[in-house]
Structures are given as C-alpha cells and as structure tokens.
C-alpha cells in the first residue's frame, strides 16, 4: 500500500514553556516512504519529531496518523498507534547488557522483530549481546537504539540524527538498514545534518526554516535544486 497517506501534519505549532518553536508545520508522509527533514540547527526539526509524539509542551494544529487525529492524545497512546522514536541522545540503559536493552521495550504493535532477526540485521549486537550498555561504542549504541524500536512493532520510525559523530563504516551500515526497512514498508522520517547520508535514502526532503517548511524537494529534483539547497543549508 505504498503511496497512501500515513501522516499528515497541518498547521502544527509547538511550544517549550513560553518559547514558540514551530510556527505552522505542514507536510505529508506516505506509507512506506522515507522523508528527510533538512535544515540548520535550531530550525525546529527535532521539535517536529517530538511534537508528532506529543513530547513538547503545548501544541496545536493537526497531526493525522493513519487516519486518526492525535493532537489531543497523550504520548503513550500515540506510540501505541505504531510510532517508534529514536532520539539523538539514544537513551541506552547503561547498567543493562545489550541483550537486556533489546528485551526491555514494550510492544506497541504487532510484528515486532525477533532477537534472531535483529542479530541478522546487526551482527555487531550479537557479538556484544552480553556487554554492558556503557561498554558499547557510539556506533554500537546507535545500532542498539534503532534495533530496540524495531522490536516494538512500530511501523513508523522517527529517527533523529542517527549518523551524527559515527565512523563512515557505521554510517554506511545504517544506510543499508534503512534501505532494507523501506523495502519492508516501514515509514521513516529522518532528521539529519548529514545531507550526504540522507539524500540517497529519502524519497522526498522538506527544508525546515524558522519552524515551518520552506521547501519540498523530491529525489528526482536534487540536481536541479542544488543552488537552493546551498542557500538554505550551505551544502
């Protein structure tokens, strides 16, 4: 069912206390699509992911998820509609082993990946399954953070800066995993500073500036809109 609308964000405003961060975000993500939110630091991309899940303070507007309005729902109910969030800080439980971290998440939907499937996808995690969270490298922690949400049965993945600060070989592995997840009909929103990582993976890109979408760029338009991207992002 690729191509049917899965998420529609309309006139989304979000606040942290008195600070007004999102000023009317409007965008659509289709089922099985990978969309990237591009923009400079402070543009509102991470806040957009948090606002979709209801993790900001006040929010208004509309967030339609698979046909259901979620703007008034608490975060735990939104998650149970099949949304997985991989925050920039990863949130690994340092006192638990790699495998204990994987066994921890609750199911939010049917079809969560088995440990066996996770270890096939991430052989490093199988090798390090008895290692404490604190003993994992940055790349292994990022793989674990992503693997953990795949265990939950979430079908929509919100991924915040997953390539940041990682060795090129790990970034390449994460790109492989995202391509594989797209083939399996996962719907993915990538917030990325690393344009070279995000661009080949994303079907469409939304450039975010001052808490709203300034531009939409389809994969096929990348070459023709290089000058525009340079202007917005300095890439």
Describe this structure in words.
It contains nine helices and ten strands. The chain has 235 residues and is an alpha/beta fold. A hairpin with a 2-residue loop joins strand 4 and strand 5 (68-69). A six-stranded mixed sheet has the order 6-7-8-3-9-10, sandwiched between helices. Strands 2-1-4-5 form a four-stranded antiparallel sheet, with helices on one face. It folds into two domains: 1-82 and 155-166 and 186-235, 3-Layer(aba) Sandwich (Rossmann fold); 90-153, no CATH class.
Strand order of the largest sheet: 6-7-8-3-9-10
Give helix and strand order, one letter per element, not per position: EEEHEEHEHHHHEHEHEEH
Cα gyration radius (Å) = 17 Å
In CATH, the homologous superfamily of the largest domain goes by the name: P-loop containing nucleotide triphosphate hydrolases
The helix count comes to: 9
**CATH-derived architecture of the largest domain:** 3-Layer(aba) Sandwich
Q: How confident is the prediction overall: mean pLDDT?
A: 92
Uncertain regions spanning at least 5 consecutive residues: none
Integer count of domains: 2
CATH class of the largest domain: Alpha Beta
Largest beta sheet, briefly?
6 strands, mixed
Helix content: 25-40%
First CA to last CA: what distance? 34 Å
Helix/strand-derived category reads alpha/beta
Find the count of extended strands (DSSP E, 2+ residues). Answer: 10
Bulk shape = globular
């Amino acid at each position: 069912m690729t191509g049917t609308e899965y998420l529609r964000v309309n006139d989304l405003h979000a606040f942290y206390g008195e600070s007004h961060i999102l000023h009317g975000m409007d965008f659509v993500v289709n089922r099985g699509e990978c969309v990237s939110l591009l923009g400079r630091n402070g543009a509102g991309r991470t806040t957009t992911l948090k606002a979709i899940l209801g993790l900001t303070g006040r929010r208004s507007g509309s967030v339609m998820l698979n046909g259901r309005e979620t703007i008034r729902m608490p975060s735990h109910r939104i998650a149970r509609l099949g949304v997985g969030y991989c925050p920039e800080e990863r949130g690994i439980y340092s006192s638990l082993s790699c495998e204990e971290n994987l066994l921890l998440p609750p199911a939010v939907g049917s079809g969560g990946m088995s440990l066996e499937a996770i270890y096939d996808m991430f052989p490093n995690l199988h090798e390090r399954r008895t290692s404490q969270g604190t003993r994992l490298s940055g790349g292994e922690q990022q793989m674990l953070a992503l693997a953990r949400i795949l265990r939950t049965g979430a079908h929509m993945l919100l991924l915040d800066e997953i390539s940041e600060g990682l060795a090129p070989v790990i970034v390449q592995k994460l790109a492989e995993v995202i391509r594989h997840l797209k083939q399996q009909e996962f719907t993915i929103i990538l917030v990325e500073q690393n344009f070279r990582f995000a661009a080949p993976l994303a079907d469409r890109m939304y450039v975010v500036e001052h808490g709203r979408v300034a531009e939409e760029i389809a994969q096929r338009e990348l070459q023709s809109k290089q000058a525009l991207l340079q202007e917005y992002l300095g890439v």
